[in-house]
Amino acid sequence: MKVIHIDELDGTANDVDHDTWRSRRFVLADAGVGFSFHDTLLRAGTETEMWYANHIECVYVYQGTGTLVNRETGEEFPLKPGTMYLLDKHDKHTVRAETDIRCACVFNPPVTGREVHDENGVYPLLTATA
């Protein structure tokens, strides 16, 4: 059993801070459970382009408002507490945060914590031992 409070992640290697977002990673690939689990903040007034070409991501918004844009179809979806979205087709997407958005995210395969978005918003596929 593993129990972690989010405050325990602050300032550690599992606390990844970027211009438009901050991700605190509770569970990573080295846990060996087949997924990673993150608490992510998307900062108010920002726009973040992402494309998880190597991962499936499920996101549950529990605080804040914004818009999710499918860049391939142009469809827009409102984000507010209680909204879940699943990027099951490796969808190229943009999140526009009107307010700070807090969400819980699950990745499969799990991320290692060393990934950085490339110029296309893609995380490389890394393994726990790579």
Description of the molecule:
The protein has 130 residues and is an all-beta fold. The protein has a single domain (15-108), classed as Jelly Rolls (Sandwich), CATH 2.60.120.10. It is 0% helix and 44% strand. It is built from no helices and 10 strands. Strands 1-2-3-10-5-8 form a 6-stranded antiparallel sheet, with no helix packed on it. The chain is globular.
In the predicted model, the low-confidence regions spanning at least 5 consecutive residues are none
The SS-based structural class is: mainly beta
Total helical segments: 0
Helix content: under 10%
How many structural domains in the coordinates? 1
What is the highest CATH level, the class? Mainly Beta
EC number: 4.2.1.108
Protein name: L-ectoine synthase
GO molecular function, one term: ectoine synthase activity
Pfam families: Ectoine_synth
Throw out a few tags for this protein.
single chain, 130 residues, mainly beta, 44% strand, globular, lyase, ectoine synthase activity, Ectoine_synth, RmlC_Cupin_sf, RmlC-like_jellyroll
